[in-house]
Design goal:
Protein name: Actin-like protein 10
CATH class of the largest domain: Alpha Beta
Strand content: 15-25%
CATH architecture of the largest domain: 2-Layer Sandwich
Pfam family, one: Actin
Number of helices: 15
CATH topology of the largest domain: Nucleotidyltransferase, domain 5
Number of strands: 20
Number of domains: 3
Structural class: alpha+beta
Distance between the termini: 20 Å
Shape: globular
Family: Belongs to the actin family.
Catalytic activity: ATP + H2O = ADP + phosphate + H(+)
Helix content: 25-40%
Radius of gyration: 22 Å
InterPro entries: Actin, ATPase_NBD
CATH superfamily of the largest domain: ATPase, nucleotide binding domain
Strand order of the largest sheet: 1-11-10-2-3-4
Length: 386
Amino acid sequence: MKTDDASDSPVATKVIAIDNGGGLLKAGLVDSEHEEGALLYPEIVIPNAVARARRGGKAGKNKVLVGKEIMACPEYTMTRPSHKGIVIDWETQKILWDGVLHGGRRHLTGLLSKGSDLSDVTVIVSQPLFCPVMVTRVGMQVLFEDFGFARAVFVDSPLCLQFSESITSQFGEDEWKNPCGLIVDAGFSGCRAVPVYNTYPLERCAQRMDVGGRVMTNYLKEAIAYNKVDLDDAPLLVEHIRESMCYSAQDFVAEVEVSRACPGETTRRYILPDHSSTSSHLGRVVDPRLGEDVSGRDFIDMNHERMVVSEALWQPGSIGILQAGLAEMAARAVMKAPAATRSAVAKKVRWLLFEDLGGLEVDALLGLMSLISYPMQDSNLRPSAP
């Protein structure tokens, strides 16, 4: 955790929390003066990306689109400020932070009024584990010099996520007496597993895999293109298709065989959006067996592909990535913990799902971990979304 102070100014009265993920940017304002205590409001969730339209003349192509503005654009070129969770394009990141803080856009209302003075505001920003020191220093420079915050702190995500309400509310008092635990963080840029002791991550025991939301979305985009539907100009639409249709199979081989033997029972149809009649870039899922009239509409039918995409989390080798799967990665993190703490670590697994990665099943992860490492039948595995 890195902190810095701009000056010896009075204690800030407002606190802004920013979860700067690779896929989504989430922000909220904490008002410590509220009579009921600190409250987080209003929460803003937008894609952590900017885009430019491919059509609309020179003026349209030069306009930067943020948040829901991207949703209304049928064809666009999208740029993300981060790579594998690490910010590499600070100019793009500043555009997004400014939109979240001050708004000033058609579909984006900021946390504060436009032109608000930030000299009495503290900001907390999440960052991935093992973030390079130079990246954090540049981030501090941006927050202090460009935005003028009174105080700023960058917090490693495994540390800050343990205090989220979605996690603390799921463990009883007796369970919290166990100081050990395992954080399994499944996100857009990849998945990480790290043991913790008294809430502090044991960094030398951390494990990482590159398969996450980005990899699975790109794989699905190629599979859809193979079926003669090119969605290169609409990456957020491909993400919505994956989140809406793909899921993790309990028994992958058996369910694929069933889907091939009885395709009519398992096939689902995604009706692509019609931009001539609606401003939304998102489509909808229907069951072909219902016989809905789709004449004149573009659609995608998916059968066993719905399971193949999510199976990459458990077996990355199935899409050509030679790495351990999610369960094996988690088991390796447990086995790298000090021998005296392994049993305690395995008994309190805190699984944070930062985005929809395809219907991850708790029982599937726990069962695979028990097969890969020593028995973990008594593990407390709690999934959560922030």
